[in-house]
Design a protein that fits this description.
- It contains six helices and ten strands; from the N terminus they run H-H-E-H-E-H-E-E-E-E-E-H-E-E-E-H.
- The protein is α+β, with helices and mostly antiparallel strands and 227 residues long.
- The strands form two sheets. Strands 1, 2, 3, 4, 5, 6, 7 and 10 form an eight-stranded mixed β-sheet that branches.
- Strand 3 and strand 4 form a beta hairpin.
- The protein is globular.
C-alpha cells in the first residue's frame, strides 16, 4: 500500500510538471509568435498590412493625382489670362504684336526702349521672341506707330521702375514688358487705314496679338505711308 501511494504521488507530480512545462512552452511559443507579428506589423511585413499599404498607396496616389490636377488647374488659370476673343486661335502663329500707350506714356516707352501692358497680358506677351515686328497704338491720338521690333523675349517686370505704380513702389503698372528697337521710322497710320486689317471684338476693340497675314498687311501699310 505504501509503495502504491508513493507511485501514485510520483505519477501525479510528473503529470503536473509535464502540464506546467507544456503550458510554459506554449506560452513561450505564443509570446515569440506575437512578438514576431508585432515586429512584422511595424516593419510592414505582416500580411494584414497589405490592405493598409494598398490604402496608403491609393491615398498617396490620389493625393499626388489631386496635387497634379491642382497644379494643372493653376497652370491653366495662369496661362488663360485673356478671353479667347483677345487671343489668336491655337492653330495660328504669332506674327506681330500691338502695344498700347497714350500721350503721357509714349515718351517713356520710346526713351526706355521698352513696351509694356497691364498684368493680364503677361502670358500673352511671353510669346514674343526677338525680331518679332511690333507696333505702338496711341489711343489719345488714335494713331498706330511703327515699325518696331523686339530685342528680347517678352517677360514680366523686365524693368519694374518703368511706369512705376505710385501706390506700390517698385512695381510697374505695366509689367508685361519687352525691350524694343526701331526697325524703320514711318508716318503714323490713321485709324481708317489700319483698322480694316485688324481682328475686332466687342465693338471698336481690336486684338493685340497679330496673325502673320495681319502683320504683313500692317508692314505694307507702314511702308506705303512713307517716312
Amino acid at each position: 500500500m505504501l509503495n502504491l501511494n508513493l507511485d501514485m504521488k510520483m505519477a501525479e507530480s510528473m503529470s503536473k510538471s509535464s502540464l506546467r512545462n507544456a503550458a510554459y512552452n506554449a506560452n513561450a511559443v505564443y509570446q515569440k509568435g506575437n512578438n514576431r507579428i508585432m515586429e512584422n506589423m511595424v516593419s510592414g511585413k505582416y500580411p494584414g498590412n497589405s490592405h493598409n499599404k494598398d490604402l496608403n498607396s491609393s491615398s498617396s496616389n490620389n493625393s499626388n493625382s489631386n496635387d497634379s490636377n491642382n497644379n494643372n488647374n493653376a497652370a491653366d488659370k495662369r496661362f488663360k489670362t485673356l478671353p479667347a476673343a483677345e487671343t489668336l486661335p491655337r492653330d495660328e502663329v504669332l506674327g506681330g504684336y500691338i502695344f498700347v500707350c497714350n500721350n503721357d506714356t509714349m515718351q517713356e516707352d520710346l526713351k526706355r526702349q521698352l513696351f509694356g501692358l497691364p498684368p493680364r497680358y503677361r502670358d500673352s506677351v511671353r510669346a514674343i521672341t526677338p525680331g518679332l515686328p511690333l507696333f505702338l497704338y496711341n489711343y489719345t491720338t488714335h494713331q498706330l506707330h511703327g515699325i518696331f521690333e523686339a530685342t528680347t523675349f517678352g517677360g514680366s517686370n523686365i524693368d519694374p521702375t518703368a511706369w512705376e505704380d505710385k501706390k506700390c513702389k517698385g512695381e510697374s503698372r505695366f509689367p508685361a514688358q519687352v525691350r524694343i528697337r526701331i526697325r524703320k521710322v514711318c508716318k503714323a497710320l490713321e485709324e481708317d487705314a489700319f483698322r480694316p486689317v485688324l481682328h475686332h471684338y466687342d465693338g471698336p476693340k481690336f486684338r493685340l496679338e497679330l496673325s502673320i497675314p495681319e502683320t504683313l498687311d500692317l508692314l505694307d501699310l507702314c511702308e506705303q505711308n512713307g517716312v
